[in-house]
Amino acid sequence: MARAWILPILLLVSGSVVATGLILMGSLGTATAVLLVFVLLAGVNSPLVFPRSIGAPEAQRRSAVDGRPVVFWRPGCKYCLRLRIRLGRSARQVHWVDIWRDPAGAAAVRAANDGNETVPTVFVAGRPHTNPDPAWVREQLPRSA
């Protein structure tokens, strides 16, 4: 779980260092803007942007019952972030599994991708799809959801 926060923490520390340097040079407005940009980048790259993750066995069980896709992801993945943002509010209708938190999820992704932990890997009706188009994932959502 700790490595999911490495990039956001590095962004916050870097932003703080740069902002401090700008403040010491007398550029308070620029320092504030730079710090705000780094805080936003840290937030976007944190696990907080994604809906709450569940374990792979639970996600697969729920998917079998409700027909919703299961997305295997990891923090810091720009393709996972793209999928999450492009799904918008529909992201809540998908079962999310953080492979850095769930060893069973990481194993499922490796099994689907020739031993690689390539994410996002989306399982629809038990079939894996690696880095699918977000519009296609949205089409796979049940209409009643």
From TrEMBL:
Keyword check for Transmembrane helix, yes or no.
Answer: yes
Q: Where is the Glutaredoxin domain?
A: 70-127
Ordered alphabetically, the record's keywords are: Membrane, Transmembrane, Transmembrane helix
Q: Which residues cross the membrane?
A: 29-50
Query: Does this UniProt record's set of keywords contain Transmembrane?
Result: yes
Q: Name one GO molecular function term.
A: electron transfer activity
Q: Name one GO biological process term.
A: cell redox homeostasis
> Which first-to-last residue range defines the signal peptide?
none
Record-linked InterPro entries: Glutaredoxin, Grx-like_ET, Thioredoxin-like_sf
SUPFAM superfamilies of this UniProt entry? Thioredoxin-like
Q: Under what name is this protein listed? A: Membrane protein
Q: Which organism is it from?
A: Streptomyces alanosinicus
